[in-house]
Amino acid sequence: MTARRIVLLGPPGSGKGTQAVRLAAWLGVPHISTGDLLRSEVQNRTTLGLQAQGFMDRGELVPDQLVAEMIRKRIEGVTGFVLDGFPRNINQAKILETVTAVDRVLHFQLNREEIIRRLSARRVCPQCGHVYNLISSPPQHDNLCDTCKTLLVQRSDDTPEVIERRIDVQYAREIGPMLEFYRKRNVLREIDAQGDIESVYQAAQRALE
Ligand code: AP5
Fold it and tell me: What is the pLDDT along the chain (209 residues), one digit of tens a residue?
């Protein structure tokens, strides 16, 4: 049987969001991205958004209790999901376990050089949220969204300095205990995220069967 409660782990820019969209459509379950949820809170200037913004701008993790409450509300009553960006540390993994079981955890592996190359070339549509890459998946017309023709923008945390901090502070420091946690539960699968989008997608699909 194909797993339906999925967690994606990996460094920034390893393709979690790109693959989460595809996997969620394939499985018919919601794609839940804490990054997208937080950016929407920031944009709407909610209390949570105002609390989160400084952490996000600096490339640091938003405090666990703020993110946990948000994700708890989003997951309640849902029977399947592709979770993209949560958990980010062992504390969040333990919180998640109190809310739901997880069938499979995919860990995308990508080297630092390629992370920086991909994130420097990432452009997003501020209107519909579609994610492009000037090298691997450029828009058809210069800097315009293919679907809604809105001018594409660069995420404010995709600067070289903040990318380095996201890799070191959010990922390298936190990933080890989480991998151990999920390895013990026998749900962890490693994915080589170096290939093109289609080949990574196929590897992820195989890992869910
Ligand atoms: P979030 O938005 O989750 O950022 P992230 O984890 O750093 O991940 P990214 O969105 O940068 O990368 P991705 O792996 O999704 O890659 P993508 O598919 O876009 O979080 C933002 C912030 O919110 C955090 O910094 C933190 O402050 C806060 N936050 C979020 N969750 C939190 C939590 N749980 N707790 C506390 N704080 C939290 O791909 C990248 C680019 O590469 C794109 O251009 C894409 O087109 C391209 N690409 C993708 N795959 C390939 C491929 N195979 N080949 C070539 N190009 C590719």
Answer: 788 999 999 999 999 999 999 999 999 999 999 999 999 999 999 999 999 999 999 999 999 999 999 999 999 889 999 999 999 999 999 999 999 999 999 999 999 999 999 999 999 999 999 999 999 999 999 899 999 999 999 999 999 999 999 999 999 999 999 999 999 999 999 999 999 999 999 999 999 99
Structure tokens that stand for 205 in this block? 């699909």
Give catalytic status of residue 4 as yes or no.
Answer: no
- Residue-range domain boundaries for the chain: 5-30+78-208
Concatenated DSSP letters of 129-157: --EEETTTB--SBTTB-TTT-PBPB--TT
Is 74 considered catalytic here?
A: no
Q: Which fold has domain 5-30+78-208?
A: Rossmann fold (3.40.50)
Q: Which residues line ligand 1 (CB under 6 A)?
A: 10, 12-18, 34-35, 38, 55-56, 59-62, 67, 85-86, 88, 92, 118-119, 122, 131, 133, 136-137, 157, 166, 170, 196-197, 200
Reported pTM: 0.96
List, as one string, the DSSP characters of 32-61. EEHHHHHHHHHHTT-HHHHHHHHHHHHT-P
